[in-house]
Amino acid sequence: MAHPDETRLKVKTAYVRGRMTIADAAAHAGIAEATAKAWKIAAKKLGDDWDVARNAARLAAGGLGDMTMEVMEDFILQFKRSMEELRKADGISPMDRAEILARLSDSYVKTMKAASSSNNNLARLSVALEVLELFGQFIQTKYPHHAPAFVEALEPFGAELGKHYG
User: Fold this and answer.
1) Cα atoms in the 13 Å half-sphere on the side-chain side of 157
2) Which of 20, 18, 15, 23 is nearest to 49 (CA)?
3) How far apart are CA 128 and CA 56, in angstroms?
4) What are the pLDDT digits (tens) for 109-145?
5) CA 81 to CA 45: how far, in whole Å?
6) Which of 50, 14, 20, 21 shows the shortest CA–CA distance to 159?
7) Which DSSP category does 31 fall into?
8) Which of 31, 80, 94, 153 is the most exposed place for a label (fewest CB within 10 A)?
9) Are the C-beta atoms of 14 and 25 separated by less than 8 Å?
10) Region for residue 91 given its phi and psi (left: phi exceeds 0; alpha: psi -120 to 50; beta: otherwise)
11) Taking the CA of residue 67 as centre, how many other CA atoms within 13 Å lie in the half-sphere pointing to its CB?
12) Measured between alpha carbons, how far is 161 from 25 in angstroms, rounded to an integer?
């Protein structure tokens, strides 16, 4: 039995934005789990990877970004405390002080590099998805008569985003 495009979109949205399992997303939309899995596989073959979209949605919602910021803030506080303690410390030889500074600096550089080298395409996809969500809300509020056309174009455009951002 063929399902309307709205059902496929409901499954994808539940999986991607709602972070449901594929089984729960299928049940939520009232379809068989096997059908939902087949849609997910077919979409991936067309360049619309639901798992990438799910990770991007999580980033857009602040998940990884918030956690990274929290870790970075904690690291920076620890770094500053260590530097203050090093300044106050008496009786440390110049060579030992230089060794401690080198280790602190190395740790700082490595931590900053790790925080900034997250998947750039995933971050860009996250922003694109957030813009699409805002645009969808705008259409629903200001131009509700255009909502069906927007929804119709959204799924194939999602595949294009997946291809573009990998």
Assistant:
1) 12
2) 15
3) 9
4) 677 666 655 556 656 766 777 787 788 778 888 988 8
5) 51
6) 50
7) S
8) 94
9) yes
10) left
11) 7
12) 22
Structure tokens at 137: 């809300």
Rounded to whole angstroms, how far apart are CA atoms 39 and 153? 17
Distances in Å between the alpha carbon of 48 and those of 68, 82, 129, 130, 143?
27, 47, 13, 16, 27
pLDDT tens-digit map of 62-99: 655 566 666 666 777 777 788 888 888 888 888 887 88
Q: Which helix H or strand E contains 67, and what residues bound it?
A: helix 63-88
- Which residue in this structure is represented by tokens 């080198």? 102
CA distance 21 to 152: 24
Q: How far apart are CA 21 and CA 130, in angstroms?
A: 21
Length of the chain: 166
